[in-house]
Structures are given as C-alpha cells and as structure tokens.
Specification:
The complex is a heterodimer of chains A (313) and B (105). By secondary structure, chain A is mostly helical. Chain A is globular. In chain A, helix 6 packs across helix 10. A two-stranded antiparallel ribbon of chain A has the order 1-2. Chain A has 13 helices and two strands. With 105 residues, chain B is of the alpha+beta class. Chain B has a three-stranded antiparallel beta sheet with strand order 2-1-3. Chain B is elongated and about 60 Å long. Chain B starts with a strand and ends with a helix. The interface between A and B is medium-sized, with 38 and 28 residues.
C-alpha cells in the first residue's frame, strides 16, 4: 500500500498486521505506541514506592492493583508496537533502560510525598484517559484493541485517585495545605501533558492524516480542563495564577503558553533533564536486577525446543 | 484433524471463536472454514488454528480473579463528587457490566 492509499483508507481500526503498509506509517505508529508503552512503565515505577507509603490497608491494596495494571498496559502496548515490525519489544525495553526511549514529561519528576499521589492518579491519569478514549478509534487495530482493555481498567485509577484527593482535602488543615502546594507544583506539568500547541507540534499532521491520532493537542487539553478544573475547585483546590488560563466565551479554555517552561519540557523530551535521569537509571537498575529471570525463561524455552521465548519484564 | 475457527465480523473488531472444522491440512481447513463459518454470518476475516495448538486452563486449574474480595480495584467502589468525564463514566459502566456478568456466572 502506498502512502496515498493509506491516507485514503485511514479510519478507525482500518489497518492490521496483515496489511502491507509503508515505512512512514509503521515508523510513526511505532514512535507513538512506544512512547505510550514507555510512559505506562515509567509511571508505574514512579508510583511503586507509594504502595509502601500508603496510609491504610485499603489504599495499599488499591495502589498495588493500580501499579500492576500500569505494567500490564505497558506489556499490551509493546505487543501492539512490535506488531508493526519496526522494533522488537526487546529493543524498546533496552532503549528505555539506556535513556534512548522517550516517555511522558510528568514521569520525569520525582515524587516524595503521599499528597502528590492524586496529581498522577487523578489529574495525569484523567488527562491520559481523555486521550486514550480517542485512541480506541486509531487506525492501527492492535493499538485500538489495547486501548479497549486500558480504558476499561483506567476508570478505577481515576476514581481511586479522586477518592484520595477527596480524603486529603477533607482532612486536617495541614493535609489540605500540603495538597494545595503539591497541586501548584504539578499543575504546569499537567497542562504540558498534552504537549505543545497545535501550531508547534511536529508530528501532529502526519499522524492525523493516516488516522493514528484522533484529536489535536489543543482539543484534548481543552476537554481536559473543561472537566477537571471544576472538579479541582469542588474539592477546594485553588487554581494557580500561573500558568494563566482564560475561559473563552464559548466555554473552552485558553492557556497562556508563555507561562509554561518549554525549555524544561523540551529538555525532558530529549531525556536530558537532570533530575529526570534518576527515573531512567532507577528503571534500568530494576531491569538489570531481574535479568536472571529473563535468562532462566530463555534457557527453559530453548531446552524445551518450544517457540521463540518472550522475555519477562 | 480438528481446526478451531475464529471469525471477525467487521474490520477492526476482535476475532472471536465461532466453531471448528475437520480437515487434513491448513489449506483445506481454510476452505472449509470459509464455507461453514463465513457464508451465513457477516465475515471480514477468519483465523484457522490447529486444535492441538490451543492451550487451555479452566476454572478448575485457576481461581480467575483470585479468591479474595477485590472490590477496591473497581471504579464502582469509589463515590466521588460531581460529574465525571465522559470516558470515566464509560469505563465505570463497562466495569459495572463485567461485575454483573461475574455475578451471573
């Protein structure tokens, strides 16, 4: 299939591994899905320490279930990316460990306090779900199928995260204050979740023309703000003055881009943001620590003369 | 030799198991599958798999979903304030359906 045919036939779940697709499509889809998969894994690693720090047994159970889900989403997505035939799952995991794999800006920042958990589990997951819901209509069928399962599970993460936020904001005054501070720290990063505005987005046009991407960064950000600003206010959070957010007459939002630190954002995008490198190194150490498990599985599979082994994570 | 058949009704949907055919080799199995399972019901694609190649575990081997109460891992367990985003509502509805089906099983 040539590129023009791809653009012509592009539609929800239009292409599957049986189709002969041009290199450009395969590369763009791989880039997008690999980024998504890496983000699931790095998010899980960021949140993992909070299983131990959870303040109650219920929170501990729910948080460990969530981390388990996110790792599972990563696995699903690596398979969806692998089916494009550009990169193997092994290569993607190695790139992630080496600092060559790209992932979501929010997961480059460290997290130290329990009050920060709803920033990820409610706001970032809420933003992610907004985007993921649109990707159930992406043109790469295995990606869309993965999104069916991801969206099914993700509702629990958002609701649980919101429940933590509710608990903190109805707790002691000190808790409320620390939550507000965490919100002010995380808010600009959360706004940047959707990436640069449409006019500055480099990959948007192609991804849209071949049906991979379903909605633009601006539209997604608007829909997110529309839903989550009232929610934040309902729990008593004050929306920070910066970055400036204005409500237009039609009810949509306008973000003052200049108030956001794009230098930091693009440093993160290139994996050269200094504090974020700890996240990558931590993940690499974890991957190396379980190397013996992968080796054992590989050896077992070879001696049994079975099919090609799939490495465990 | 028995071959299990999975039918996909429309482009983009999942292949779901729809029955099996008896055939000596893959080519014949594909032809029989097209005739037996692709003729009446709307079909976009069929997968044909040797029965021996399918591994099975059932509820006797594994307690699917575990044996402890896991209500904490469902969106339906959390009461939150205000209107949820459309996609969160969808997810919660899907989870409520799944919960109901588990109860009926």
């Amino acid at each position: 299939m040539d590129l023009d045919t791809v653009k012509e036939r592009a539609g929800p779940r239009a292409f599957s591994p049986a189709d002969d697709l041009p290199e450009e499509y395969r590369k763009a889809a791989t880039r997008m899905i690999e980024f998504h998969a890496n983000s699931e894994i790095m998010g899980a690693y960021l949140e993992r320490p909070f299983i131990r720090q959870a303040p109650s047994i219920d929170r501990k159970l729910a948080f460990s279930a969530k981390v388990q889900d996110e790792i599972g989403h990563g696995q699903l997505l690596y398979r969806a990316a692998e089916s494009l035939g550009v990169k193997t799952r092994e290569e993607m995991l190695t790139d992630l460990a080496n600092g060559d794999g790209k992932f979501l800006n929010c997961f480059h920042y460290g997290m130290t306090d329990w009050v920060e958990t709803p920033m990820i589990a409610f706001f970032v997951d809420g933003a992610a779900m907004r985007r993921q819901a649109t990707l159930r209509r992406t043109s790469w069928e295995p990606y869309a199928h993965a999104m069916d399962k991801v969206c099914f599970e993700e509702g629990f993460h958002v609701k649980h995260g919101e429940d933590i936020l509710r608990e903190l904001m109805t707790g002691s005054r000190a808790e409320q204050q620390r939550t507000q501070e965490a919100f002010e720290e995380w808010w600009p990063r959360i706004i940047q979740f959707f990436g640069p505005t449409d006019d500055k987005s480099t990959h948007h046009d192609f991804a849209t023309s071949v049906g991979l991407k379903q909605q633009s960064n601006d539209d997604l950000r608007n829909a997110f703000l529309n839903q989550y600003i009232p929610k934040a206010e309902k729990y008593g959070l004050e929306i920070p003055d910066e970055p400036r957010i204005r409500k237009r007459d039609d009810g949509t939002f306008e973000v003052e881009e200049d108030d956001l630190d794009w230098e930091e954002f693009f440093a993160i995008a290139k994996n050269s943001y200094e504090p974020g490198l700890d996240q990558i190194d931590g993940r690499k150490a974890a991957q190396e620590a379980v190397e013996w498990v992968r080796e054992t599985i590989d050896t077992d599979a070879t001696t049994a003369g079975g099919h090609a082994p799939q490495a465990a994570d | 030799m028995i071959w299990e058949v999975f039918r996909q009704e429309k482009e983009g949907q999942y292949h779901t198991h729809c029955g099996n055919v008896h055939a000596p080799d893959r080519e014949m199995a594909k032809q029989f599958a097209a005739i037996q399972h692709g003729r009446r019901k709307p079909t976009n694609s069929l997968w044909v798999v040797p029965k021996d190649e399918i591994g099975e575990i059932d509820a006797e081997d594994v307690a699917f979903g575990g044996t402890t109460d896991k209500s904490y891992r469902w969106a339906t367990a959390y009461n939150t304030a205000g209107k949820d985003a459309r996609e969160v509502v969808e997810s919660e509805d899907e989870q409520a359906d799944a919960e109901k089906q588990r109860g009926e099983a």
